[in-house]
Amino acid sequence: DPSCLLSAAFFGALGSSFLYGYNLSVVNAPASYIKAFYNKTWIERYGEPIGAESVTLLWSITVSIFAIGGLVGALCVSLIIKVLGRKGTLLLNNSFAVVAALLLSLGEKSHSFEMLIIGRLIMGVDSGIALSALPMYLGEISPRHIRGFIGQFNSILICLGVFTGQVLGLPELLGQESRWNYLFAFLALPALLQLCVLPFLPESPRFLLMERKDEAAAERAFQRFLGKKDVSQELEEVHAEARAQVNLNTITVLQLLRNPAVRWQLITVIITMASYQLCGLNAIWYYTNGILREAGFAENILPYITLSTGAIETLAAIISGLVIERIGRKPLLIFGFSAMAVFFSLLTVFLNFQNTMSWMPYLSYICILAVIASFCSGPGGIPFILTGELFEQSYRPAAFMIAGTVNWLSNFAVGLLFPFIQEALQTFAFLVFVVVCILASIYLYIILPETKNKTFVDISQSFAKINKIPVPTPSQEMELVLSITPEKNGKVQDVTKMESSF
């Protein structure tokens, strides 16, 4: 009975990645009303209307401070996880979402635009924690033959969140002057739903066994997640992973950066995460309405056509989740980045001939949908799954902290620099992303091993050759296990201090 695993994946993602996706799109619809509110508040306070530059500055701070909050969240996550565990971190995180929902929805009533900016910052912290803790939790609770499928819940609910933000932002629903506060009040709902369900689901069995040393609890957790009585095989797999680790304590970020045994895993995660943000998907969102306007679509139907982007995104993520265990991580990533490069190139061509033929803008629009679908087929979710898969237990929190930092810094950089790139290069701006996508594909083709259906130990062994670390033979491994002697205070001590890749 897989219902326990599926509800952990769904409700875990609902209070985490869904909120992240929702926050990416929710500010688009009420932008003009929020700016009007800033102006009104300014007049109330200072007796004169706000300058055009000031309003743009306040608005861009409101939008981009989300990424700064994300960075803060990503930097805190390994500390919180150490104390509260995977599930406990997700539960605590809901408090940030509820506080942010209150600040954002009551800002107008309180005549305070500062509340909106602080609310966005706190919502960023929530997303920064969520995008590290959730993939870690999902990767550790799922059996290896469906680890990718369960991991894709993260990506599917990000897309669903973006889509929900677009739908609720429609003028008939909450995208009106009198109702935009409710768009932000809605943030509390998924968080409260998660608070109702997650406490009744088990903690990550890997965390319970390897870090809490609680075998009985780990066994119960596996039994519930896998829906079967006999989980000795799964427990043995975790024990094998524990034996293979020289460092049983959680590694710090500095130790991870210095360790040659995980060098290429780290480089791979950094490049994949940076490409996830720098491949240009964020820029597509900025452009969609402009391209549609030029296509001659009437202003009042733009929001409905924009919905098609969110719908395509969600659909592609679901299909990717269904095929990831059959096709594998590597082909989906390479396909996604290569297809994005192709469609960005075509989009550049079509944008340059936009005014020559009346049907050109429709081709541009089809290209936009194709870029979005390509992104969600692989690059949109797999970087998070890989971060969990390429590192063993003791490295994982530090790895997610580094991946999260790269993710949010790149996100911030795109938001900051893209308007300038666009001004300088005009319609050729997308060629920058073509280069990023091609380089990412080439790197992944050469370096990344396939990780589907492998244990975490197998995956780190597949990197041993490129890290130039000798893979120990079974007899050496046996020696290693025997050389671990109990110390007086009950702590395990490794006599040989054998430096290995595990």
UniProtKB/TrEMBL annotation:
Give one Pfam family.
Sugar_tr
Task: Note the topology in the membrane.
Answer: Multi-pass membrane protein
Where do transmembrane segments lie in this chain?
Answer: 57-81, 88-105, 117-137, 149-168, 180-201, 266-286, 301-324, 331-350, 362-386, 398-421, 427-448
Q: Which PANTHER family match?
A: SOLUTE CARRIER FAMILY 2, SOLUTE CARRIER FAMILY 2, FACILITATED GLUCOSE TRANSPORTER MEMBER 9
Family per record: Belongs to the major facilitator superfamily. Sugar transporter (TC 2.A.1.1) family.
Where does it reside? Membrane
A cellular component term from Gene Ontology for this protein is: plasma membrane
GO molecular function annotations of the record:
D-glucose transmembrane transporter activity
Superkingdom, taxonomy of origin? Eukaryota
UniProt-listed InterPro entries: GLUT (IPR045263), MFS_dom (IPR020846), MFS_sugar_transport-like (IPR005828), MFS_trans_sf (IPR036259), Sugar/inositol_transpt (IPR003663), Sugar_transporter_CS (IPR005829)
List residues of the Major facilitator superfamily (MFS) profile domain: 9-452
Any single biological process term in GO: dehydroascorbic acid transport
What gene codes for this chain? Answer: slc2a9l2
Instruction: List the keywords (alphabetical).
Output: Membrane, Transmembrane, Transmembrane helix, Transport
Q: Which Gene3D superfamilies match?
A: MFS general substrate transporter like domains
Q: What NCBIfam families does the entry give?
A: SP
Q: What is this protein called?
A: Solute carrier family 2 member 9
